Every structure is written in C-alpha cells, then in structure tokens.
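Students often ask why inverse folding is considered easier than folding. One informal answer: many sequences map to the same fold, so there is more than one right answer. In these notes we will look at a single instance of the problem. The structure comes first.
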C-alpha cells in the first residue's frame, strides 16, 4: 500500500510540474500557445499521437493536462490515449521489437483517424464543449510579463510563504528523483525528463512576479487542482490495487479466443500499468495471437487517463467505453476472419 501512495505522489508531482509550465508558457505568450494549437486540428492529432508513442505515461500526462486547459480538442485526447500503451511499451521493445513497431504504427494511425471522427461527430454538441478550467486565462499588454529581472532579488528578500513553499517542494521532488527515493524503477530517460521539467518549474517559481505566483501558480494550480488530482489518483490506485489482488489475470486460460478477447478488453479498462503485462508475456511465449495483444493495447492507456478523473468522470468513462467497444469489435472481426 505504501507503493500505491508513492505512485500517487509521483503522478501528482509530475502533473503539477506540467501544469505549472503550461500555465507559464500560456501567460508568457499571451495565449499564443492556445491559439497556435487551435489553428490546426490535424497538428493536434499528430502531436498527440507522437506523445502517445512515447513509452510510459509521460506523453499522456502532458496531453491530458493540455486538454484540461482547453488547449486541445476531445479528439486529440482520444488520439493520445489510443496511441499509448503505457509502461508495457518497454517490455514490448525488448521482447518483440518488430511486432511492437507494427502495433504502435497501427495505434498511431488508428488514433489520428478516431480523433478526427470524434471531433467531427461531437463538434456541435454540448459534450464537445471545451474542458477549460476556471482561472486559466491569458492577459494582454504588460500583464503578459512574467519574467522581470529587476524584481527577482527584491522578491526573494521579501520571500512570500507561497514562493518559499513551492521552491522547497520542487527541490525535494528533484532530490527524491535523483537519489531514487521515488521513480526508482523508472527508465532513465523518463527520470531525466522529469528532472529537467522540474528544474524549469523551479526557475519559474523563483523568477515570476508575485502576482503571477499568487494568482496563477498558487491560487489556480496548487489550491484548485493538486488536491483533487492527488485524491482521485490515490483513490483510483487503491481501487486497482485491491481489485488486482483478487483477480489474477495469469490464471486465465488460453484455449478460448472469445474468453481471451473478453478478458483482454476488461483488463484493458484498468487505468494502470501492470495487469496488462500478462498479455505481453503470453504473446512473447506464443500462447495468444497478435490481435488479442492488440485489443488489450488499444483499450488500455496505462496511468495516462487517471488525471482526467479529477476533471470529468463523464469524459473518462466515455473514452474507456469507446475504446473498449471498438477494441472488442476489432478483436471479434479478427476471430471471424480467422475461423
């Protein structure tokens, strides 16, 4: 259970760093980041799909954060969650690299096409209403100035509790990652990425004017979002931990393809990395066909969708049900074609 709490802290910490950087860049550019993405939906789909291809949940967290800030569409969110296979990507690369490239390519293309279709269908409905949280705004004129060298030292001489708290938290987070207190089983490139983003976040916290820090970083990101994200993430991980302890997918048989298909889809619904590894293992041993692994890979998205729970349970369920339905349909078609 301590590991679950640790995972919740890591996910929340990473999401906090991403949100802080997104908030800073959007204000720094006076909303140009948001406008740039809104100009090209195709660009959104392609970028989201590329982030989804990154092994682990790193890319998914970034895109989910962008979605919750109204920067990308629902279709682009669908794209990244289709293209991503979570931490299982690392095992696939080692065990069967050629098949991994094939699966990733199909998911990449499928994700972009599905994202386009979703936006086309829901573009004029209330469900497609941009999920933009209150407090995320950009200003014009002088208020866009978030880096003023002349006020940095005076601000630190009169350091506010909020600036001091955020700086200490970020430093402790970086130290914990570097010394393996957290993320000790994570790939090196992911650790490096997290540390670099955290260093950027530390620079932001250290240099932004008091107004930006108090109103945007503390009042909006920390007070409005972080507690909700942590509690939902912790609750989801505890539920998954309890559920997996009672259901061991390793006990499934490999004789009935319909049973395998159903279990691959149901296990794919679990918003976690770990349970899906059994399908990677079974395929590497030649015990299940490729399409069963594909269905599980299509339905699942690792931890990537968990932060979405804190913002919209309706959209979280929509994404899961959509992917499950399509995944099962694809698997069923493969079984019929095979027989």
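Output (designed amino acids):
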């Amino acid at each position: 259970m301590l590991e679950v709490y640790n995972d919740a802290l890591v996910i929340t910490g990473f999401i906090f760093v991403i949100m802080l950087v997104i908030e800073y860049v959007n204000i720094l550019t006076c909303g140009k980041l948001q406008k740039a993405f809104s100009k090209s939906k195709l660009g959104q789909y392609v970028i989201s799909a590329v982030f989804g291809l990154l092994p682990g949940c790193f890319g998914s967290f970034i895109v989910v954060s962008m979605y919750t800030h109204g920067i990308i569409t629902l279709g682009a969110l669908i794209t990244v969650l289709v293209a991503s296979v979570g931490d299982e990507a690392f095992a696939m690369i080692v065990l069967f690299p050629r098949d991994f490239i094939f699966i990733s390519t199909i998911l990449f293309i499928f994700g972009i096409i599905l994202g386009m279709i979703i936006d086309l269908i829901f573009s004029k409905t209330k469900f497609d209403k941009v999920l933009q949280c209150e407090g995320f705004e950009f200003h014009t004129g002088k208020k866009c100035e978030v880096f003023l060298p002349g006020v940095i030292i005076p601000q630190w001489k009169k350091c506010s509790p909020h600036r001091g708290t955020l700086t200490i938290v970020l430093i402790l987070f970086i130290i914990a990652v570097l010394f393996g207190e957290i993320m000790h089983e994570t790939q090196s490139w992911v650790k490096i990425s997290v540390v670099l983003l955290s260093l950027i976040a530390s620079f932001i916290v250290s240099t932004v004017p008091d107004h930006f820090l108090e109103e945007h970083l503390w009042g909006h990101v920390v007070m409005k979002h972080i507690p909700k994200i942590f509690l939902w993430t912790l609750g989801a991980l505890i539920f998954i931990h309890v559920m997996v302890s009672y259901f061991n997918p390793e006990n499934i048989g490999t004789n009935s393809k319909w049973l395998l298909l159903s279990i691959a889809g149901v296990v794919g619904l679990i918003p976690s990395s770990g349970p899906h590894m059994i399908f990677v293992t079974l395929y590497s041993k030649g015990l299940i066909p490729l399409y069963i692994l594909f269905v599980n890979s299509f339905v699942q998205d690792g931890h990537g969708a968990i932060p979405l729970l804190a913002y919209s349970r309706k959209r979280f369920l929509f994404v899961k049900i959509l992917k499950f339905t399509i995944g099962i349909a694809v698997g069923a078609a493969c079984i019929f074609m095979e027989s």
